Amino acid sequence: MPDQTGDSFGSVEDVLAYLSAIETTVENEVEKIADSLDAVTDRISASLRSAIGDSSWLPLSKPAPPPPSPAVHLPPTGYLEASRDWISRNRAITAAVVCFLGTGAFLVWRRRRVNRAKRRAKRAKNGQRTEIVILAGPPSAPLTRSLSLDLERRGFIVYIPVNSLWEERLIQAEAKTDIHPLHLDITSSSSIASTIRKLNSLLDPSSPPKYSLNLASFILLPQTPSPPPSRPIAELSADAWSECLTTHLLSPFTLLQAFLPLIAAHKASILFLGPSNTPALAPPQHALENIVAGGMERYIATLRKEINSTLGDLNLVQFKLGAFNDASDRDAFKMAVALRPEHTTGDVTGPRSTTDPRNTHGTPLRELHLELFDAIVGKRNGTVYVGRGSRTYDYLGKFVPDGLVGWMLGLNSAKADVQKDEKADERVDGGGSPGWEKVDQISEESA
Q1: CA dihedral of residues 256, 244, 401, 415 (deg, nearest 10)
Q2: DSSP state, 216?
Q3: Most confident of 168-182, 331-345, 359-373, 392-406
């Protein structure tokens, strides 16, 4: 009987061999088909390539680029064309420059137009003068003389308070019919009352002349301390303080207090004129001038608040004065010295600048005259800066640190020199007797 197990095993191997042969046959056939497809594709590509290459409607190659155009040399542009090109490239800068120059030109044109306008005081129908101005300032001061002459020329009747015969002669020497001395002794209450009573009768409409007079303004020009040699506070005596405060603060305050009811009755303007450059910086060794300026500043601020609360119609203007060309006013100082009697005590208020008038650089006094007239007629109020450096020095004193201001004034170098001298003296004193001999020599010279 045949073996069933061996027959079945031989049949399975035959099947596997048969399947392997089929797989090999399929792979061979697939490779042949792929090779056939590649050959067909190559023949088609070669046919297309040859057909396209033989065609005449296609370009053979990419055309060459055109040659560069020759450089064009333009003629040089003129200033007008160059300026136009620059303006087109920098429009923002051009607009800023045009605005700045236009605004400056407008302000200059407006200022010139205002300065050219005629300024004349009101007159009566018959041409007589009706506006009175009280100019309370030292008659011997060149600024008082300049202001009085200008106000008289513009049609005002000017009264200047005087306290002596010499000051009256000084005013009469001008030979002006509308500049009058006003006798007033501020130390005597009866003299003040008599003067105010005379002014009231003069301003009374019912009294002659037939046309009515009007008090237009009260101008206070305090006498500034004459420029003595710079002295520290330690060297100022009590008499110097008393004389300074009495002359430069108490006298102007008393004078204004006496005229204040008359000023309020006629709605006149009050004008304060004072220096600004030196007090604004408050330099050392100028205690008298700084104290006077500070006291006047506080007085004006208090008076302005009182006027606003009680008398709102009064116009109070403070003039802060800078440097002026005072060459034209030096003859006033010479005339004051010539008319001064020999027995008169006190100093004549002379020009503040001791330099050559030809080398003096400042603002013309005409600008002060114009601003003063505008303040009298009510076109100015508050604080007015006139003169070279008045506004600049005022801002420096308010906003710039004291150390920087001292450096600008040269105080640091002066302090260094003083310290150097002190060290030199200490070295000399340490050597023995030469230091005491130097002290004795200085004491003998001062004696």
Answers
A1: 170
A2: E
A3: 168-182
